[in-house]
Amino acid sequence: MAAAVWTDRGTRAKNLLWILMGSRSNHTALKPCYDALVIGGGHNGLVAAAYLQKGGVKTAVLERRHVLGGAAVTEEIFPGFHFSRCSYLLSLLRPHIYRDLELKKHGLKVYMRDPHSFTPMLEEGMKGAVPRSLTLGSDLAENLNEIGKFSQKDAKAYPDFVAHLEKLASAIRPLLDSPPVDIRGVTAGSLRKRLAATKTLIPIAKCKLKGLKLGGNIPDFYEIVTAPIMKILTRWFDSEPLRATLATDGVIGAMTSPSNPGSGYVLLHHVMGELEKEKGAWGYVEGGMGGLSQAIARAAQSYGVDVFTEKNVEQILVGSDGATKGVALKDGTEIHSKVVLSNATPYATFKYLTSKGALSEEFIKAVEQVDYTSPVTKINVALDKLPNFLASPTPDDKPGPHHQCSIHLNCENMDILEAAYKDAINGRPSARPMLEMTIPSVLDPTLAPPGCHVVSLFTQFTPYHIKGREWTQQDREDFGDTIFDWVEQYAPGFKTSVVGREILSPPDLEKIFGLTGGNIFHGSMSLDQLYLARPLPSLSDYRSPIKGLYLCGSGCHPGGGVMGSPGWNAALTVISDLKRR
User: Fold this and answer.
1) The pTM of the whole model exceeds 0.85
2) What is the bridge-based pairing of β-strands 334-342 and 324-329?
């Protein structure tokens, strides 16, 4: 038995070593010429590279940092503590990508969470009584018991609400795995081009079929993609803790409040996922989110993709004919290619990587108008013991079911979320921030030393500038103290268990991970920046104004989250264009 345990630990240690090393074990020499170059080794760039190579396109990935993954990365911030430094949960990755690239075979392991949501109350007025909490998971009967603590009416309505959301989400899933409709191709050009462009209508046809199933719910579908999530949730439910808990998915990562139009779509976007064939499930990747990126990278390398870290692209090369001909690295190295795919944000691609003379002033002006506002400060915390919540105490530092959840703090009611948002739009970090805490080391022992834990605090709302000025280190520490003071109220003893903390404000997320504005979605998921308008109407088909230059990151349709669809769709577009050439 001891030998079996040791072997398992050895395998886990080996997998974690792979994750932390990035692709530095790839000793392939950089060639002077490829068919395709992918700028950025984030998950979408790696997905695009894998499918390009499978399609017979010789491809290389050039990552600026020392480690692969972009925002889906694992890093050892404090000795022995390994963090999903930016993105921290998996759900939205498209199932066909999971299967096609055989990610399990290449080392991907996911810890499923059940229950998945825990919202403790403070309820200061209830002296001597254990504060209430709301826990939700896959067990519908247990969910109804939990909701019934606050409202029996809401408990009766909840199953219908879940079924309603799933019905609406199923209507737009077909759009995720295909490029948007090629409006220009369908309406202009030669007959041959028009016929080729009609392929992009197939997902629309599928959506129409799903829409027929919606029947009388079509107005509800329109409402959820346009309305404030508060309006929808207030119609369904009475209890504030349930409303606020569900509303977090409508504002997560977005500089918006539950009362703003469009927050309903953000909620829908976050329930469209699937993990291990379970709709709407979220899980932890073993070894952190870098484990996913490394699995995709190993799949890509198995097909023949050359993957490189510490290759900082300075400029996309454009020939005298107006077509891309490769890239130049910061060290002066030039690598030529037929096509270039940028996994950077559209803003970074066209403002920093493309020579000014290659694009019109009108186009650059449009790029500058894309909204990258971010409300997020990410805090990574190393602990020497498990947090113990007043609302659900556990003895002897033993984890309870709630410890594996997304733990929603300062989510007792909608007013708290609204106030937090108003602080940020007035130029200051929230005094009582919305907090989503996760403790992945409860399920994944590879992340921290025995008895210790890693904690992710995804906090909102914080502005990019504080009252018009840059963040200082003192600002970061002050905001971190605010966060820890609030966590301490829910879990006394938290502050004394802290071994180390890293505070990443929106400018830090931009600087480290290349997320323009610190926006985790590569651009706001607002209605004016979705589908045919993502990131701009002229860029919705992944093709740029420069022939041979494509976008493949989350700034493209269908948007943000660790999904892989932008990379998949971009790769199909490139392969189609190369065949036509």
Assistant:
1) yes
2) antiparallel
Q: Report the C-alpha dihedral over residues 217, 219, 220, 222, rounded to 10 degrees.
A: 130
Strand order in the sheet with 376-383: 133-136, 117-120, 406-409, 434-438, 453-460, 376-383, 498-504
- For 525-576, list the strands marked E by DSSP: 549-551
579: tokens are 């065949």
Read off the tokens for 332.
């002066």
CATH class for the region spanning 33-70+92-109+288-370+523-579: alpha beta
Q: What pLDDT digit, counting tens, does each position of 116-154 carry?
A: 999 999 986 556 688 999 999 999 999 999 999 999 999
75: amino acid identity, one letter: E
Q: How many CB atoms lie within 10 A of CB 234?
A: 15
- Do strands 33-39 and 334-342 pair parallel, antiparallel, or not at all (unpaired)? parallel
**In a 3-state reduction of DSSP, which class is residue 532?**
helix
Residue reference for tokens 């107005």: 219
**DSSP 3-state of 395:** helix
> 44-72, pLDDT tens digit by residue?
999 999 999 999 999 999 999 999 999 99
Q: Nearest to residue 43, comparing CAs of 294, 335, 364?
A: 294
Q: Which of 248, 210, 216 is nearest to 229 (CA)?
A: 248
In the chain, domain spans: 33-70+92-109+288-370+523-579, 151-279
Using alpha carbons, select from 30, 37, 42 the residue that is nearest to residue 57. Answer: 37
Task: Identify any residues that bridge with 550 across adjacent strands, giving them in sequence order.
Answer: 341, 543
Question: What whole-number distance in Å separates Cα of residue 360 and Cα of residue 351?
Answer: 12
The secondary structure of residue 539, as a DSSP letter, is G
pLDDT of residue 25: 44
Q: Is the pLDDT of residue 78 over 60?
A: yes
Q: Which single residue is written with the structure tokens 């998945």? A: 116
